[in-house]
Amino acid sequence: MIVYGDSMSGNCYKVQLVLNLLGIEHVWQEMNIAKGETQTPEFLAKNPQGKIPLIELDDGSVLSESNAIIGYLAEGSMLIPIDAYNKAKMYQWMFFEQYSHEPYIAVARFIQLYLGLPEDRLAEYHSLHAKGHKALAAMEAELAKQPFLCGSQFTLADIALFAYTHVAHQGGFDLTHYPQINKWLLRIKQQASFVPMKG
């Protein structure tokens, strides 16, 4: 399996983390978006959207979108609840990550970390914080009741939301006011075969 990704990307890190937690053999192909490596004819032939992460299986088939990839990789593992309700709760939080969390926390991080807070993006940057903090508050409330987002079981929901939450400070989000999130971050870092984000 070949995995195309950027080690500093939270979406790519989700995939990297699942691969390591489950001990799945793979070849990591580092991609530089800034240098246009996802827009070459060769890469666009694999993914016409020109996005990473992307996995290429031994038979040549490919799969994109980070949460779809980690769902495929974790099939049949303890990272996905067996109980139908708990599995649905896992997906609920994964959809929450893509629609209510990532668009604010990841984009603010991109503007600050990758772009260096350019003047023409400052208004957008500051506007992202209210909705980003709303997402963090929802997580804080849930984690006050249980160790992980789906109860006592560590699942893909935790991985999906850990990816950008643990680097939220790189987008100007102060996590000191979220004690339950901070305890949760530590619990995830203590998982066997955990690997930190590179870069």
From TrEMBL:
Record-annotated GST N-terminal domain positions? 1-81
Ranges for domain GST C-terminal come to 83-199
Enumerate the Pfam families for this protein.
Answer: GST_C_2 (PF13410), GST_N_2 (PF13409)
Q: Which domain of life is it from?
A: Bacteria
Q: Which residues, if any, are the signal sequence?
A: none
Q: Where in this chain does the entry annotate a coiled-coil region?
A: none
Report the protein name in the record: Glutathione S-transferase family protein
